[in-house]
């Protein structure tokens, strides 16, 4: 667990809880470095495997697949000098009854008074609890993801491929000439209520779920590095909650998975977290002068609150649309009823006629 306080040139009192993608994504100029860490995948193949039919849909858009660890390292390297980082968990957030500004309690017994708190502490966010957002909902789906490395190079084309058979989706995305990322999404069996932590069991479950898929996929999983295998029960925030909810109390707000955890079906959760960081920082910088952060008082507090309010307004519809699309994709994977599937497919075709539309969003410059 990481807790970071970012000290910008003149901002010394913004506390960012969480050192994941969202928490670290407060720097610009990282995009060019990100592009150097992986080669571009120009095409997405979507393949539906069904008894008797094999449908292919090719989507032409550029994707970059990165190792999460590399992304976090690049973001951490880009943090400005003066950033204070604590390897310490936040236990709770409270409002100081005298100043009305928030304070956070750390696991080392210390507490920090802050002018602004942004909770980037993921889907089980402590800051979201303070905002009374309630726990995220659960899909009846799990996802296994892993990396397979080939010291002599792999033979896979520089393309992303996603295959679906029944309620199981398997995808493969080469990162470099020697490294391939893959994931499998499948319904959660009743017996899976307690998900296995043993990597060998996870690997076996991944291979078993690939019955009927081309053998190349099973071999890819056979070759994976068991230390880099992850199994998650998939969580989400409902789009209707995001539409009506208030993600702010005074000068405290949330971003990233803490605000909008979504199924990984579009691969947009992390990207949306980086967008949050850009929009949050832009609104803060536009609405406030350096003095506003250094001074107290009701007037200054109001200015910060307005900046956060503007950030949330700017993000709302983008997040509602993304979570609607991921929610419907998740429900589609969960359902066994053909009628229900057809209805969901029709709704998706009406609402998201451009299947790659979510990639064209521009959150604008910082
Ligand atoms: C299977 C799967 C595949 C995915 N694929 C993609 C993809 O292809 N593309 C994409 O863009 N997104 C993808 N995502 C989503 C992406 O991983 C998340 O949206 C992203 O990691 C969110 O970043 P975050 O910083 O908000 O949260 P997190 O990455 O969860 O980071 C939260 C951080 O907060 C810390 N923390 C938590 N509680 C506390 C506390 N109390 N005190 C201090 N620190 C705390 C944690 O230790 C962690 O460092 C995928 C997700 C899953 C599950």
UniProtKB/TrEMBL annotation:
Task: Using the record's annotation, list all stretches that form the FAD-binding domain.
Answer: 64-289
Q: Which domain of life does the protein's organism represent?
A: Eukaryota
GO MF: FAD binding; monooxygenase activity
- InterPro entries registered for this protein in UniProt: FAD-bd, FAD/NAD-bd_sf, MOase
Record field: transmembrane: none
Its keywords, alphabetically, are: Monooxygenase, Oxidoreductase
Family to which the UniProt record says this protein belongs: Belongs to the 3-hydroxybenzoate 6-hydroxylase family.
Q: Output this protein's name.
A: Oxidoreductase
Q: Which organism is it from?
A: Lithospermum erythrorhizon
């Amino acid at each position: 667990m990481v807790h970071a306080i970012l000290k910008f040139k003149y901002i010394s009192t913004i506390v960012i809880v969480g050192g994941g993608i969202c928490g670290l994504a407060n720097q610009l100029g990282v995009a060019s470095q990100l592009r150097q860490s992986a080669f571009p995948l120009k095409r997405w193949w979507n393949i539906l495997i069904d008894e008797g039919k094999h449908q292919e849909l090719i989507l032409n858009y550029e994707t970059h697949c990165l190792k999460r660890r590399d992304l976090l390292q690049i973001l951490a390297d880009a943090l400005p000098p003066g950033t204070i980082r604590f390897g310490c968990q936040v236990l709770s957030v409270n409002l100081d009854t005298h100043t009305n500004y928030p304070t956070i309690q750390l696991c080392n017994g210390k507490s920090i008074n802050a002018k602004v708190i942004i909770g980037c502490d993921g889907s089980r966010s402590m800051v979201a609890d303070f905002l009374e957002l309630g726990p995220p909902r659960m899909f009846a789906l799990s996802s296994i993801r892993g990396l397979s490395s080939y010291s002599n190079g792999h033979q896979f084309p520089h393309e992303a491929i996603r295959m679906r058979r029944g309620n199981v989706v398997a995808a493969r995305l080469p990162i470099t000439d020697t490294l391939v990322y893959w994931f499998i999404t499948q319904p959660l069996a009743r017996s899976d209520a307690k998900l296995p932590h043993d990597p060998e069991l996870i690997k076996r479950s991944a291979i078993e779920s690939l019955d009927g898929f081309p053998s190349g996929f099973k071999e890819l999983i056979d070759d994976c590095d068991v230390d880099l295998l992850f199994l998650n029960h998939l969580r989400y925030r409902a789009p209707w909650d995001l539409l009506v909810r208030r993600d702010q109390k005074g000068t405290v707000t949330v971003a990233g998975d803490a605000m909008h955890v979504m199924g990984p079906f579009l691969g947009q959760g992390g990207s949306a977290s980086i967008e949050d960081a850009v929009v949050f920082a832009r609104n803060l910088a536009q609405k406030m002068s350096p003095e506003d952060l250094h001074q107290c008082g009701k007037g200054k507090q109001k200015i910060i609150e307005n900046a956060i309010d503007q950030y949330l307004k700017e993000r709302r519809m983008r997040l509602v649309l993304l979570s609607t699309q991921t929610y419907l994709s998740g429900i589609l994977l969960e359902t066994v009823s053909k009628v229900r599937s057809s209805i969901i497919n029709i709704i998706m075709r009406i609402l998201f006629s451009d299947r790659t539309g979510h990639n064209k969003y521009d959150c604008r410059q910082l």
